[in-house]
Amino acid sequence: MEILLLLSVFVIATCGLIYELVAGTLASYLLGDSVTQFSTIIGAYLFSMGIGAYFSRFFKKDLLSWFIQLEILVGLIGGISSAALFLLFEHAASFRLVLYLLVGLTGTLVGLELPLLMNILKDRYEFKDLVSRVFTFDYIGALAASIVFPLLLVPYLGLIRTSCFFGILNVAVAIVVLVKFKREIKWARYLKSKAVACIIVLVGLFIWADKIMTFAESQAFRDPVIYSHSSSYQRIVLTHSRLDLRLYLNGNLQFSSADEYRYHEALIHPAMLYSPKRSQVLILGGGDGMAARELLKYPEVEQVTLVDLDPAMTKLFRQNSMLASLNDSSLLSPRVHVINADAFQWLKENEKHFDVVIVDFPDPGNYAVGKLYTTAFYRKLRHALTDSSVVVIQSTSPYVAPKAFWCVNATLQECNYQTIPYHTYVPSFGEWGYVMASPGPLAKHHDSLPAGLRYFATGTFSQMCDFTADMQQRKVLANHLNNQILVQYFEDEWGKYQE
Amino acid sequence: MAIIAGGTITVSQYVACMEKKDKYAHISSRISGASAKAGHMMRDQQFGTPDITEYTDAVIVGGGAAGLTAARHLHHSGFTNFRLLELEPHTGGNASSGSNQYSAYPLGAHYLPIPNTDNQPLLDLLAEAGILTGYDPNGLPIYNETDLCYDPEERLYIRNRWQEGLVPQLGISHQTQDEIRRFLELMEQLRKAKGSDNRYAFDIPVANSSNDALYRELDQLTMEEWLTQQHYHSEELRWYLDYCCRDDYGAGISTISAWAGIHYFASRKGKAANADSSQLLTWPQGNGRLVQHLQQFSRDKTQTGCVVYKITPETKQVLVDYYDINTHQIKRLVAKACIMATPQFITQRLIPGGQYDHAFVYSPWLVANITLDQIPESSGYQLCWDNVIYQGKSLGYVNAQQQRLTQQLPAKQVITYYLPLDHLDPVASRKYAIALSPQHWVKLIADDLEAVHPGITELMHDIDITVWGHGMIRPHKGFITGDVRAAAQKSPFANVFYAHSDLSGISIFEEAFYHGNKAAGALTDYCG
Asked: Where's the PABS domain (chain A) (predicted)?
């Protein structure tokens, strides 16, 4: 009997520390800045344990039954905590509040455990023996937890399964105690069915954890994955590290929060300087709202029409407070009109003309996306332009994929656009290219830029238009629907980098 | 021991059979296609004297590509008082199309190769339909980019992998590579070759091809015999050519004449400003796109569900007697002249003194439009427009989604599966095809595709099966240059004109178009 109860001390201690570690890790994954997250989580958790310990004095009768109740509850809440946090990340307006509530609750319950257990054991041992044994097993458990957590659990089980697994252990303790002390326990049958139900929930969650967060996927990314979602169109993944937050679509990096301003300022502001009129702007792609953020810096911009295929993207970047802070809540602006539609289809039906068009599609890495870089597309786009409208197209890396980059330029020229190809350096991407184009002659019409830019300045542009020898214009074919040559260039050139 | 093993096999076969029964239960299916019943009515039923007589200037019997072309020609000639009678509930013939909530799809012909630049009437048709948008400074046609087949065009499943292109490349010997190169070089030469009459050795329409005996003699051999004579022995090359013949003629190299087999390659001299000569024009509804354009010229003059059962040419007029399936009436049209845009096995039954010559052989076909959740990925080259299986009994499938511009695919996709029924002689194949239930076809089709896409059966929802009893004229040995075809070109009556691709011996849109225009031209001349 004695060894059994002490073993449960060991298990309880391990579980308690694991929940704390899971919460700390999750917080630093999801919110970044691991030092702050870990220390505030540990602080909040320990404080909540203190609250739990305080409340233990109010339990006077039926201690064993209460203890079992408690184990089931800790197991359930601790067990589902990480799954719940991952799922809530997208939806909760204030994720921090949910996080600390959950940490507080778990901590309070865990804080109740040992005092309650010691009260149960106090008549069976001498006080000094009791204290010595309980704390010995408590600290051994803590050591075990702190060693297995980073070495085994996170890499092999992942966070969701780890907390599930320890939730199951907590409930298992409840069941063992239930069985061994049958005669001393009130409401034994009720407790038993409750425990079994919790075990089923947790085992189910353990098995289906993949559905919530593919463990294999987290392996593919450099940094911890904090969010992943398969929409009807693409796989959206957010990773978070100490330095930055990164968005990946189908495994391709879309931006790093550390340097996306370079990419987006270079995407938007040259076209804005070259366009005589700037009141009606169209963004094709760009569901992250970053391009819209740059455009909203111009008071002349009356309306930004943003056409992005994927409602999951625009919803995520509108609702999540952390992501909305990256795009200055541009997707909530009354000046921004978000339309979730296929760009080709939408252009076919559109009758409006735009002064500036930002084409920010994913790289032409497959034949479906490749269609959005064809002469057919640019001819269709012409119908949404006036003679003096300015278009800018993100055009992959002129350093890594010069043929692909110059192919975009050649394709636009074949459709009778005047073009200005240019490039810039974005640390997380490398050297990146854009093509500015217009049905009419391209000339600078404005000199002033909005305040608060961190990278782009009027003087910068002439340098951006200069292509060094390793990025010089190549002789390439234009991209047509019936040759899809761009996808072939892109695959050949980027393929070398992936081997 | 043998008995035990035998017993085991029987039991496992039984189990497999039981499993399979369930395996297809979720796939709905139906057979449509040329109304054999209505067609046979013409052959078998006796009709009385007409209840109603109507008068018109001209009657076109048959609303396939040739009949619709003839109607367009009449329309453009200012000849507006005519009628078009069609047996089926819709016009279009082999180029008919269907659709469901996910996609349009062809019931037969799927594409038109870039036309030869000297085929001006066809280029004009494409310009009229908005498919050809203009000519570049060199006079080369510019095609509407969205009507050209999008890249990637073709792939072949060979040695358990998909490869790019249909000419076998994966794992073939040097000897075979040399043979393939030699063959393709020869075809390139023959593409340019002209006969002593200064006409192209192989041309489209067939009627424009050279009469030089040097080339016409090729019709006296089967493609297979010619390959042997020319020392082409490679299995892969022979398979490829067999595939090409089955694709265009519904029968393989052992049946098709060498002239026709070579015509497949050497007749295509198409050029375009914005496409290679090997490229083609295609649409989700296949050649339905072309007949939809043609239909506008005869829409108000077309009567469907009409079983024409007798043609009586008289000196000043032609009597066309038909049974109207919709109203159950027997009717007579009295016209100055008539175009028989029907295949010869029908034309010769309707014409007085006509005798259907069995040299006109028709290949039966099955075309199945399969609606499925998605096309499963498999190893090798990615999904293309045309997806062919090496040594498969079918020709593989065409993926209509290829011609979509949008990023998002519909919830379900439609692929078109082509199966020439050439495993038996045409008559036996036709009987077999008509006797088979939709469930049998489903099993046959699903099992065939399982070999390249394991698990595809589960993803299927519906199969729309079209059986073409007389799908294509078959240019078997001696047919193209033979007397029977020559004799069939012209009707024995001054006021009856023939128009059907089977008169060319090759069942392609270009030939139907040629005969439709030719017959309508002759008719307008006749009527003055």
From this structure: 206-439
Number of Cβ pairs < 8 A linking chain A and chain B: 51
Q: Which residues are A281's β-sheet partners?
A: A304, A356
Option in A233, A342, A375 nearest B145 (CB): A375
Find the domain containing A243 and state its range. Answer: 219-253
Please tell me whether residues A304 and A229 are part of one structural domain.
no
Mutate one of B151, B399, B413 to test the A interface: name it (highest A CB count within 10 A): B151
Q: Is the pLDDT of residue B474 over 80?
A: yes
CB-CB neighbors (< 8 A) of B151 in chain A: 367, 481-484
User: Looking at chain B, which residue has its C-alpha nearest residue A234?
Assistant: B408
CB atoms within 10 A of CB A334: 6
Pairwise CA distance, residues B323 & B326, whole Å: 9
Q: How far apart are alpha carbons B503 and B487 in whole angstroms? A: 10
What tokens were used for B409? Answer: 């695919």
Task: For residue A360, indicate whether it is catalytic.
Answer: yes
Residues in chain B with CB shorter than 8 Å from the CB of A379 are 145
Contact by Cβ (8 Å): B465, B282: no
Single-letter residue type at B459: L
Residue A137 CB partners (closer than 8 Å, separation 6+): A6, A7, A9, A10, A13
- State the Cα–Cα distance between residues B444 and B97, nearest whole angstrom: 23
User: Does residue B84 lie within any of the structural domains?
Assistant: yes
Do B151 and A376 make contact, defined as CB atoms within 8 angstroms? no
* b/e per residue B146-185 (b: at least 16 CB within 10 A): bbbbbbbbbbbbbeeebbbebbbebebeeebbebbeebee
Burial of B328 per CB tally in 10 Å (0-12, 13-18, 19+): exposed
Are residues A309 and A167 part of one domain?
A: no
The rounded distance, in Å, linking the Cα atoms of A398 and A408 is: 11
> Which one of A138, A223, A355, A360 is the catalytic residue?
A360
Q: Assign residue A286 a region (left: φ > 0; alpha: ψ between -120 and 50; beta: otherwise).
A: left
Once rounded to an integer, what is the mean pLDDT over residues A138-154? 87
Residue range A102-136, pLDDT digits in tens: 999 999 999 998 898 888 888 778 888 888 888 88
CB A321 within 8 A of CB A99: no
Q: Is the pLDDT of residue A290 over 50?
A: yes
Q: What 3-state DSSP class applies to B298?
A: coil
Q: Which residues contact A353 (CB under 8 A, 6 or more apart)?
A: A280, A384, A385, A386, A389
What is the mean predicted confidence (pLDDT) over B166-170?
92
- Computed on alpha carbons and rounded to an integer, the radius of gyration of chain A in Å comes to 29
Residue type, B236: E
Residue of A nearest to B143 (CA): A482
> Do A245 and A183 belong together in one domain?
no
**pLDDT tens readout for residues A183-207:** 888 788 888 899 999 999 999 888 8
The answer to whether position B245 is within a domain reads no
CATH number of the domain to which B57 belongs = 3.50.50.60
Average pLDDT over residues A289-313: 95
